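Hey, quick one: can you model this chain's 3D structure?
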Amino acid sequence: ERLALGHRSLLCDPRPADAKEKMNLKVKHREPFRPFAPIIPEEKTADWFDAPKHAPFSPVMLRVFPFKDEKAKAAVPAVVHFDGTGRLQTLRRSSHKRLYALVEAFAARSGVPIILNTSFNVMGEPIIETPEDALFSLLYTAIDYCVFETVIVRRSPSFTSLLDLKPNRTIKNHRLETSWSPDGKTATQHSVDAITPWGERRNSLHPASAAALARMDGKSTGRDILSAIAPSTGLDEKTMAALLHGLRRRYVISFI
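Sure thing. Here's the predicted structure for all 256 residues.
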C-alpha cells in the first residue's frame, strides 16, 4: 500500500471547487460526496492543518487532522472532508523523492503544496494491477493522462468511445451449461475460462455478455456488435460500453 500511495494513484489539482465531483462521477464512477485525501510535505503540515507539532507524520494516511482555518479550506476544496478535516499522506524527501519533487513543483506554480490523491481504480474494482489496466482506464474514464516513469500517455483526439475499438476474445474455453429451474424449465449458463497474469479463472456470463462475445471476431467494432445484438438484448451505448469494460477487466477480451 505504501508503494501505491502517490505512485499507483490518481492525482489531481485540489483547487477547483468542482474537482471532487468530477473525479467521483467521471473517473471513479461513484457517489459525488465521497472524499479525497491530500498529499503534503511533512514540514508544511502545520501551515495547513491543526496537527501536533511534535508528530505531524502520516506517511500512509493513518491520521486525520482539521484544516488550520477557513482560508486553508477555501484554497483546496477538493480535499476538504465535510467536517473540515483531511486524511493526510505526509511526505519526506528522503522516502518519497519523486513524489516530493512533484508536489514541490506544483507548489512553485500554484502556491499550494498539496495534491489530491486517491487510489487508481473504478468503483467496485480492485486497484489497477497492470500497465494495460491503467491504459484501459485512460480510455474508459475521464482521466487526462497516464504517467509511466518518464512516459506520459493521453488519448488520441480522434478517440470518442470504447465502442469504436475492436474487441477480441482472449478466452481459453467457452462453455454452455444447462441447469434445471424448479418449475422444470431449462436455463442455459455461459461460462468462460480466462487467462490472467495470475492464472486461469472461470467467469460466468450474463446472456447479453455471451451474445456480445459470440459476435467478436477481432474485426468488428463494439458499435458493430451493438447493432447486431441490441434488438435481442435491449442494450444501449452506455450499457454496451460498461459490458465491454467488465469483460476486459476480467481478461475475457482485449482490444485491437
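One thing worth noting: The two ends are 32 Å apart (CA to CA).
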